[in-house]
Design goal:
Strand content: 5-15%
Order of helices and strands: HEHHHHEHHEHEHEHEHEHHEHHH
Radius of gyration: 19 Å
Distance between the termini: 13 Å
CATH architecture: Alpha-Beta Barrel
CATH class: Alpha Beta
Largest sheet: 8 strands, parallel
Shape: globular
Helix content: 40-55%
CATH topology: TIM Barrel
Structural class: alpha/beta
Number of strands: 8
Length: 344
């Protein structure tokens, strides 16, 4: 069954099972956003945090996002329920169990560091995350590394986030610096200096761009921040010159299809622009972003693409792309390449 398009019936059985068994790497997923509504609700009760809902069902209903700004509002409210270092140990362990159920073998995970550093001393939260990572890896075999990010709308936290990342880098837990949050009004150029300092310190650098703002945001992440990967980047299709450039230099895009539909970046009645990106030769990976908030997971992301016409070979190539786009060392990448080849 090579080089063919699957029908919805076939996607629901044969290909779905094959995708579940496929070993995977995920590069764009947020720890706080990967914590389900039930867990957030329980944390709110435990930590005496008031949510704008009178019941769990009402809280779940708030995950029907009107737009990106509404999503950010709910995301921040959820993050405010995480009040103790132990919450992050628990969340990390639970997240790795979920990743294991998707046959994800390794993941690079964003932390909303601009919010974290206002709550905890660096060493407390780093130790809590490390404990969760070690316990979770021992139980599931899934490896995790973190990329704390700056929230664009609070640029005054930039230096504090960088200091936090450098502290975690010393323990081998943090890989690099990220940039997330609202793009509108907060262009990449605002963060040029902190990114330059991060690179000089040996950190890897990534940035969300080209999600709710067009190609200019992606250009800014490339030129001003020298970002090694672009989170989302789907608005790149609006600029032929940018598409050509991305195809030439092969900067990986961390694409999150279901997220784009749920936040109305892509209209529900339109095919996802990942097809145009792939056909143009752009380097693309597939990810789930904030899976329970968008009622998705990594398997469902691949299934969606299959329903939109991607063949098994194309899906497998996207999966292989994640190895190459990761910040793993060459020896670790080669081990995964060998495992993936045997699985194919």
């Amino acid at each position: 069954m090579r080089d063919r398009i699957y029908t919805n019936t076939e996607v629901s059985d044969y290909l779905a099972e094959r995708l579940r068994a496929m070993p995977k790497i995920e590069l764009h997923v947020h720890l706080e956003g990967a914590t389900d509504a039930e867990t957030v609700w329980a944390m709110a009760k435990k930590n005496n945090v008031s949510l704008p809902a009178t019941s769990l069902d009402e809280w779940k209903a708030m995950y029907a996002f009107r737009d990106f700004n509404h999503f950010v509002e709910i995301y921040i409210q959820a993050a405010e329920c995480m009040k103790t270092p132990e919450d992050f140990t628990f969340m990390t362990e639970r997240f790795l169990k979920h990743q294991s159920s998707q046959n994800v073998r390794y993941c690079e995970v964003f932390l909303s560091a601009s919010l974290l550093i206002q709550k905890f001393p660096f060493d407390e939260i780093i130790d809590a995350l490390q404990e969760g990572a070690e316990r979770g890896e021992k139980e599931t075999g899934v490896q995790i590394r973190f990329i704390p990010d700056i929230a664009r709308h609070v640029p005054e936290t930039s230096q504090g986030v960088l200091d936090f990342v450098l502290a975690g880098q010393k323990k081998g837990l943090f890989l690099g610096l990220g940039l997330g949050g609202p793009e509108v009004g907060f262009p990449p150029e605002l963060f040029t200096e902190v990114y330059e300092e991060a690179r000089k310190s040996g950190l890897r650098v990534v940035a969300h761009a080209g999600e709710t703002v067009g190609p200019e945001s992606v250009w800014g992440a490339i030129h001003a921040l020298k970002s090694e990967r672009i989170g989302h980047g789907v608005r790149s299709v609006e600029d032929p010159e940018l598409m050509d450039y991305l195809a030439e230099v092969q900067i990986p895009l961390e694409v999150n299809p279901v997220s784009n539909y749920r936040l109305k970046v892509v209209p529900l009645d339109q095919p996802h622009p990942i097809r145009e990106l792939v056909d143009h030769g752009v380097f693309v990976t597939v990810n789930s972003d904030d899976p329970p908030m968008f009622s998705t997971d990594l398997n469902r992301e691949y299934l969606l693409l299959a329903q939109q016409g991607f063949t098994w070979e194309e899906l497998w190539q996207l999966n292989k792309n994640a190895i190459e786009a990761s910040f793993l060392g060459e020896e670790e990448k080669q081990a995964y390449r060998s495992e993936w080849n045997q699985s194919y």
